[in-house]
Amino acid sequence: MNKSRDPALILGSYQMYIDGQWTSGRAAQAIEVENPANEQIIATVPEATVEDAQHALEAAQRAQPKWAALPPIERAKLLHRLADAVLAHRDALARIVTLEQGKPLKEAIGEIGGTENFLRYAAESARRIEGDIMPSDNPDEEIWIRRVPYGVVVALTAWNYPSALAGRKIGPALIAGNTVVLKGHECTPLSGLELAKLANEVGFPAGVFNVVTGPGRKVGEALTTSPITRLVTMTGSVRAGREIYRAGAEKIAVLRLELGGKAPFIVMEDADLDNAVSAAIVARFTNCGQICTCNERMYLHEKIADEFLDRFVGAARSLSVGDPMQNFDLGPKVNRPEVEKVEAFVNEAVASGGKLLLGGKRLSGGQFAKGYWFEPTVLTELGNDTPIFQKEIFGPVIPVLRIQDFEQAIGYANDTEYGLSAFVFTNDLRKIMNLSRKLQFGELYVNRPNGELVQGFHSGWGHSGLGGEDGKYGLDNYFRKQTTYVNFRRG
Question: Do 202 and 333 share a structural domain?
Fold first, then answer.
């Protein structure tokens, strides 16, 4: 590739972290990591082999019994140290997120805060690991139910939050007594490796936390199909989730899949429009629209639709786009295929009769001569059955539809294969109290933008996934249950 190189932004060659050692393994080739803002190669990582994946799994398997034998509070001490290290290196870690993923630096700093928060919450859960003791039907007997670790956990993370998603998975997996093999997306492998550096520095035992790099269809498949792997936790696309689901059927694998979303954003006639417009902007354009809980389609009550759109389009027009290292609101899409996908969505929508209220094209020339840029875009005059209303956009584009009443909004919202998140803006308590009965989504945001909290539960329904993350319910996903019948009658 003939691409310019700014020495100040070159991170160099990385190695994988396996069994407490830095290694290139048997990799004969390297993967180039690209800065999506300028297409500059900023680093290389090994293109791991199937043998490398097996090596990492075997290391995790060897380390797991001793790790699980530690009292949870001792495991927590190491997680606290890792969280401390993440906080101490916040700015450097955020810079790496921005360089490999493209989100504005101010958002990347927030992501590193999220990484620290996930690790910290997991560590604080050490004294909340509970079981049950129940009376038996038999005399002189009790039933003990324990939460015990699965063993080796494979964690696969998406490119949109390469650091926070790693923290979200490794924290609860490790506090539960599992060991972990992490593989980040091949576009954004550096953040996981940086976490491994810190884990090594704070004294994690060899084999407890391992990081491999490489393509999902080769290395990911080797990790997920191995008999050593006891649980797979993955955040990514529906396509990848289906492949893991099919592969896991052969060995009856335990899966936790957090997949795509197509969140409806419903604004009723009694909503606080200032709040709703502000939340709609945040929920659509944060991280260039590359969040699975993003506002992907808006349904506006006809009584407020014109006023809402005037405000919303004005606010979207004022968003700045540019170098994510600077103080801009939006950075680039993560790579060329992703920006081309967004462009195809918009072109198809316009060809089908959609009306552009704002934007509609890739940015080019000047500061946008290199990189994967798309301008904030608002579309109307399309039906709920059109592709842009049915398929995940994952970019700074929003289709809008007017609705006549609450029931119509609910019907449109539920007309999807996805079931991750939904937004509703109303001050009608009866409507709010009925949402859990009517909306078929695992996560509901009422009168606020997206942004789940660590003590909550992030769970998708339908094609949005299996299992869930965060809070006590997310932690429980990293345990299996063991029942022991204890008879203490003598003679």
Answer: no
Cβ 105 vs Cβ 35: under 8 Å:
no
pLDDT of 1? 31
Q: pTM above 0.90?
A: yes
* 169 within 8 A of 467, measured Cβ to Cβ: no
Kind of pairing between the strands at 295-301 and 397-403: parallel
Q: Name the nearest CA neighbour of 181 among 70, 97, 58.
A: 58
What amino acid occupies position 210? N
Q: So which residues are the catalytic ones?
A: 258, 292
Its domain, for residue 125, covers 7-259+464-483
DSSP 12: E
Going by C-alpha positions, the residue among 392, 391, 310, 322 that lies closest to residue 357 is 310
Q: Which of 60, 19, 20, 261 is nearest to 173 (CA)?
A: 60
Say which residue the tokens 């700093």 belong to: 109
Residue 128: both structure tokens together:
């909340």
What percentage of the chain exceeds 90 in pLDDT?
95
Domain count, the chain: 2
Q: Please compute, for residue 229, the number of CA atoms within 13 A of its CA located in the half-sphere on the CB side.
A: 30
Predicted local confidence at residue 113, as pLDDT: 98
